[in-house]
Every structure is written in C-alpha cells, then in structure tokens.
Fold each of these.
Amino acid sequence: MLLNVRMVPIGALVATSALAAACKSSDKVVAPVRVAAMSITAPTTQIGIGQSTTAIAVPMDGNSTPLSGRSITWQSSNTAIATVSPSASGAVGTISGVAGGTAKITAASEGVETAVNILVIPNVSAPTLTASPATSTLRGIGTTQVITTGIYRDTATTVTYAATSSNTAVATVVSNGSAHTVTARGAGEAEIIMTATLTRPGTSAVVLTIASTVSVVP
C-alpha cells in the first residue's frame, strides 16, 4: 500500500497558527466599564423660594476614575419644595426652590446613585443671576468665549463672582469679576457653572448659580 505524504513548510504552519490565534482573539468582546460610584457637588445647599443652584454629578469606575458619556438622571424627593432640571449633557442639575422645606436631589447612572439635601428657606429675597450667552460653540482648540454674568441687587450688597467647568478636558474657565473667559481644550460639551456670592452687613451670604453650555468643535 502506497501512502501519499505531503510535506508542509514549517513557516506555513506558524502562519496558520498565528491566523487562528488572531481570529480567536478577535472573537472576544470587551465588556464596557460599568459605573461603580457617583459623586455630587453643589456650591450651596441652601436656597430661597424662587432661587436656583446647580449640582454636578460625576459617574466613576471602581478606581474613582470619572467616566464620560454616561446617561445621568435627576430626581427630587419632593417637587413641591424643590425641582431639578438636567442640562443637555445630563452632568448638571439645576435645582429651584418652590416652597420652604428640605428635598433630596438624587443623581443616578446605571443603577448607582448619589444625593444632596437642599434646604429651601422661605421669605428670602430672590435676586436673579443671568448669563450671556446661555449657550455657545467654540470652533478650534484654543479659541475663547467670554460669558458675562449679571445680577439684580441693591447698593448695600457686595458680590463675589466665580466659575468652574464641569469638564476641563473640553473647556477651562478663568474669572475676572463678572466676566468669565472660557477656552476650548478638546472636543465635546461642558457646563460652565458661574456663582455670585452676595453678602450684606448683618445677614448670611446668599449664593446664586447659573450654568452656560459650551460646545467645542475642533
């Protein structure tokens, strides 16, 4: 009986083995990193009726590294006392006082939540804070936009202004009084949170906040 033996070059065997390993590796699906924790920050936890403040929520992984692009929902435990409205990106919640009392404001992402208690104080005068422009688009890294805050107040009030960015990888902000210069750093969207702290002799300080949405297009 004759045997038909075919010799295969070693190089061909190595290439075939490598191809099979590559195909097997490509079949693996990498699971997305899930939200393991949430943080929430607010410049003040006390507002008057008709006043507003903002809170920033940040989803994080198990190493406390912020996760971007995650859906965030906001909820008030008592909308008769305080309501909350999410920003376009969901990272910022604008909290408004409706009636005296305390409401828990909760931010949640992928089943993980965090909360802050907001005290609404009745019979507090409600000066308003405005921002111009309310939204803006920066085209090109390094471009700038000045956002100006305005406030109605009496002559006895001292006002201190400040601003922060919800995402410094997208945009940074530097304040000079009521003028806040935003600089584009990377593609995406950021909320510029501006505050005005009002102080009057013999009374406690009142902190007003407002947000302006900045989109960066490289």
Amino acid sequence: MFSRPRSVSLVPNPLSVRQVIASRSVCTGVCHSDIHTVRGEWGPQAYPMTVGHEMVGTVAEIGAEVTKHEVGDKVGVGTMVNACRRCEYCLNGQEQYCADGNIQAYAGVDRDGTITQGGYSTHAVVIEDFVLKIPDAIPFEAAELVRAPAGWAGDAV
C-alpha cells in the first residue's frame, strides 16, 4: 500500500479508429469493488492503478471512424471499455460475456496492451459503443447519480 497519494503520468497508445477519450471525469461513483481491487483482495494487481468506474465526463478526442460522439459531448462510461466485438456474444450485444474477455474500466489489459485507468484518472480510453451520451440539460452531478445505479444494474444484465 502507498502511504501518500502519488501522481503518475501514463501516455496512452494512439487511438484506434473506434476509440473515444473521455476526459477529466467530473463525477465518478465509488464502489466497494474499487477498494477490493486497490487492496489486491481479488488477486494480484498491476500498479500504478487508478480506480473508478461509473464515470461522467466529456469527450476530449475521437478516433477517425467514431460516429456516435463528438468532442465536447457530455458522456457516461460504465464498467466496460472494450470487448472483441467479433465473437458470438459481442455480435448479439452481450459483450459482458465476450469470448475473448471484456475489458474493464480499470486494472484491465486492453487490446493494445495498455493497462486501463479508471474514472479518477484524467482520461479514459473507451470503444465508442461503451460511451453513453448524456443530454446537455442534465448536470454532471445528476447524471452520475443516475448513471451509477443504472450502469451497475444495466452492466450486470
């Protein structure tokens, strides 16, 4: 365990054509799974690690083929940030059962080999299908209150 907060700079690989960078999460839910993971209670972890899922922020950058989001969009991200998108489960909209393994918002090894960093980091790299647009009329704080429970239950279904 760390005895004091640490600041670590990680540089992501270049974006794939379908990735979105959600920037500076304004609100992030705290889940007890974050605590279990940081403490290594569910097995060995790769550090440095930034936890946090069920996050709300804005789109900072998009890949060349992203069609669902634009820079500046208010968005929410749940517990998954990537999946193979080719297996039977992914093709049927059941990415949580991805045959190649879905990639979690933090402490996961993404397809490009990077370790995913969660909502308490400055940026999260996410495949566009796992980014949810939030209407401008909904404040960030209210979106997080709705996003966290809805995302938690929705991601489990």
